[in-house]
Automatic annotation (TrEMBL):
Protein's UniProt keywords contain Glycoprotein: no
Record's keyword annotation contains Metal-binding: no
GO molecular function ontology, one term from the record: transaminase activity
Protein family membership: Belongs to the DegT/DnrJ/EryC1 family.
Protein name: DegT/DnrJ/EryC1/StrS family aminotransferase
PANTHER family named among the record's database cross-references: TRANSAMINASE (PTHR30244), UDP-2-ACETAMIDO-2-DEOXY-3-OXO-D-GLUCURONATE AMINOTRANSFERASE (PTHR30244:SF42)
Keywords associated with the record: Aminotransferase, Pyridoxal phosphate, Transferase
Length: 383
């Protein structure tokens, strides 16, 4: 592809929440006003309405809102009975919230490497993770598969390799994604997602949700979310819980955003396609299987050869924002260095941390602005 020389736009955002808000502002203002009018700020009617809409959207039997994506992970594992002596497998290339939730329960995260092609947990490494846990005298109880950057992990292969372990899908970045087996929210024993503002479906604060088809697990999760109280008597505390409720105002905002989410997913596909067309001959662009849908929480390229930092600096000079998710694998971070990892290290995770670079990605990225990003990146690669 010939390098483009479009005019420099006034400002390009990595994630443009203002553009989405401009589109939805009247509806969001009205939704917030309704909450202010009825005054049920905690567990108001919009919360139940949102949970019904999320269940319908995903096809999951139960959708349970909560205060954050981290709470969704934590509540899910509390419901599964995770505790000291348990080992939970998770990828080394992820955000800290994934192993954090495991460690908070006194369990041991066991780090497994990822697939270089899709950034997600490598099913081929699961057996080694299970063996390592047993060698350390731990009970391998489950695994967390992270759908990094918006693409669902290979759950069919993960399930086959998991030897009967429960599977928690960390869908903080992939809500709205799909495979031939269904939509995100239906792949694991439980699925946890985040509504942090920068996520493909985000609120205006912290928020999250978890999904399951298991009636008993759903009931336990709802109890844990409300301090572990009984469904019959709120002053009868049946189990240890947390204060994990989603605010009514955030639920009201999410309902409005959910109304345009399908369209925004389609717009993200168009942005990703333009990037692939414009950059595929100069950098390693992400590849999505033909039968899968990524929601492109980030559009993440790879810049090998130790050139990533120089390329990022050149983009910054050209007025193009970018980000590195993540500069360091989790097992190299201070809080997690003492936890076990498979093999002699996690070479793919370590290599990706040195190469990945995320470009501006959102549904409202204008074609001419994206042309400028592409031209700037091509120039940066040329050096």
């Amino acid at each position: 592809m010939a390098d483009l020389q479009p005019n420099k736009p006034p400002r390009i955002e990595l994630i443009d929440l203002a553009a989405q808000q401009a589109r939805l502002r009247p509806a969001i203002d009205a939704a917030i006003a309704r909450v202010l009018d009825h005054g049920q700020y905690i567990m108001g009617p919009e919360v139940a309405e949102l949970e019904g809409a999320l269940a319908t959207f995903t096809g999951a039997r139960h959708a349970i809102s909560c205060a954050s994506g981290t709470d969704a992970l934590l509540i899910s594992m509390m419901a599964l009975g995770v505790g000291p002596g348990d080992a939970v497998l998770c990828p080394g290339f992820t955000y800290t919230a994934t192993p954090e939730a495991i460690a908070l329960l006194g369990a041991t995260p066991v780090f497994v490497d990822v697939d270089a092609g899709n950034f997600n947990l490598d099913p081929a490494g699961i057996a080694a993770g299970i063996a390592l846990a047993r060698a350390r005298g731990l009970r391998p109880s489950g695994l967390i598969a992270v759908d990094l950057f918006g693409l669902p992990a290979d759950y069919a292969a993960i399930r086959q390799a998991a030897e009967g372990l429960w599977i928690l899908a960390d869908a903080a970045q992939s809500f709205g994604g799909a495979t031939p087996a269904g939509r995100v929210g239906t792949f694991g024993t439980l699925t946890a997602t985040s509504f942090f503002p920068a996520k493909p479906l985000g609120c205006y604060g912290d928020g999250g949700a978890l999904f399951t088809d298991d009636d008993d697990l759903a009931s336990i999760c709802r109890s844990i979310r409300l301090h572990g109280r009984s469904t019959v008597d709120k002053y009868d505390i049946e189990r240890i819980g947390v204060n994990g409720r989603l605010d009514t105002i955030q639920a009201a905002i999410l309902l409005q955003k959910l109304s345009v989410f399908e369209e925004e997913i389609a717009l993200r596909q168009a942005v990703a396609h333009r990037y692939a067309e414009g950059l595929g001959d100069v950098v390693q662009v992400p590849v999505v299987p033909e039968d899968a849908v990524s929601v492109w929480a980030q559009y993440t390229i790879r810049v090998p050869g130790g050139r990533r930092d120089a390329v990022q600096a050149a983009l910054k000079s050209a007025g193009v924002p970018s980000a590195v998710y993540y500069p360091r694998p989790v097992h190299h971070q201070g809080a997690y260095r003492h936890y076990p990892f498979t093999g002699n290290g996690l070479p793919v995770s370590e290599r990706l941390c040195a190469e990945v670079l995320s470009l501006p990605m959102h549904p409202y990225l204008a074609a001419q602005d994206q042309d400028y990003v592409i031209a700037a990146l091509r120039a940066a690669i040329r050096g």
